[in-house]
Amino acid sequence: MQRDAIYALPQEQVVDFAFNEAVADVFPDMIRRSVPGYETIIGLLGVIARRYAQPHSRIYDLGCSLGASTLSMAAQMRADDVRFVCVDNSTAMTRRCEQILQRHLPAGQFEVQCADIEAIPLENASVVVLNFTLQFLKPADRLAMLHKIHAGLLPGGVLILSEKLQFADAAEQTLINDLHLEFKRANGYSELEISQKRSALENVMIPDTFEQHQARLQVAGFAQVVNWFQGFNFASLLAVKA
Ligand SMILES: Nc1ncnc2c1ncn2[C@@H]1O[C@H](C[S@+](CC[C@H]([NH3+])C(=O)[O-])CC(=O)[O-])[C@@H](O)[C@H]1O
Ligand SMILES: O=C(O)C(=O)Cc1ccccc1
C-alpha cells in the first residue's frame, strides 16, 4: 500500500481537494489513517447488506472509490442474483475500481460506472451505500439525492449512510474535533499535513449534524433511522424504507 504524503510538503496555495490520480494512488492508506472506524464500518456494512439484500435486486455503492464497500458486501452476500452497481465521478477511482473488482467478483455480478450519482437512475435496489459520499454533494442537492434513493429502493430496502458529523454544541464540536486531530497525529500525520488538508477540504466537504441527517432522511420518506456506529465525528446511519 502506498503511503499518503500528499500534504507533507508546504504548498504556496492549497487548492481544493479533488479525487485525482495522486489521491487514488494512496487512497486506502489515506482513508484508513483519516477516518476513525473506517475498516470496522466497511466490515459491518457487509453484515448489514447480508441481512437486507433481496434476491434478484441491485446493490448500489455510490461514491465507490476503489470498491471497498462492495468487496465487503460481496464477500458476505447470501442472496441469489444480486448485482452490484458501483458509481463514482472520478475516472482515477473507477479505472482502479474496475480492475480490483475484476480480480474478486464474477463479471456478471457487478458494473462500475463513471458518473455523477445525482444523474444516474436508481431502480430495484435492496441496499444503497453512501459511505462518506453525501458530504461531498452541495448541501442544497442532498435532499433530492435521498428522495431518489428512497424512490429506487424496494419495500424493506435500506440506505447505509456514513458521514463525518458536525455538532451544534460548540464545546462538543471542539472536544470531538480534538480527538479526531489526535487520531490523525497518532497515525503519523504532521501538523502541516493536517492543516493543509483541512484547507483543501474546507469548500469541498461540508458535514451536517446528526439531527440534520435524521430530519432529512425522514423528509425523504425513510420510516426508521438508526445511528449504528460512531467513532469520534465519523458515524454511520441505517435508514429503512417501510
Ligand atoms: N457527485 C458525485 N458523484 C459520484 N461520485 C462522487 C460524487 N462526489 C464525490 N464522489 C466520490 O465519492 C468518493 C468519496 S470517498 C468514498 C469512500 C468509499 N465509499 C469507501 O468506502 O471506500 C470518501 C472520502 O474520501 O472521504 C470519491 O471517490 C469521490 O470521487
Ligand atoms: O481527512 C479528513 O479530515 C477527513 O475528514 C476525511 C477524508 C478522508 C479521505 C479523503 C477526504 C476526506
UniProtKB/TrEMBL annotation:
One of its GO terms (biological process) is tRNA wobble uridine modification. Its EC number is 2.1.3.-. GO terms for molecular function: carboxyl- or carbamoyltransferase activity; S-adenosyl-L-methionine binding. Residues 59-157 form the Methyltransferase domain. It catalyses: prephenate + S-adenosyl-L-methionine = carboxy-S-adenosyl-L-methionine + 3-phenylpyruvate + H2O. Keywords: Plasmid, S-adenosyl-L-methionine, Transferase. Pfam families: Methyltransf_25 (PF13649). S-adenosyl-L-methionine binds at Y38, G63, C64, S65, D88, N89, D116, I117, N131, R198. NCBIfam families: carboxy-S-adenosyl-L-methionine synthase CmoA (TIGR00740), PRK15451.1 (NF011995). Catalyzes the conversion of S-adenosyl-L-methionine (SAM) to carboxy-S-adenosyl-L-methionine (Cx-SAM). Belongs to the class I-like SAM-binding methyltransferase superfamily. Cx-SAM synthase family. Homodimer. This is Carboxy-S-adenosyl-L-methionine synthase.
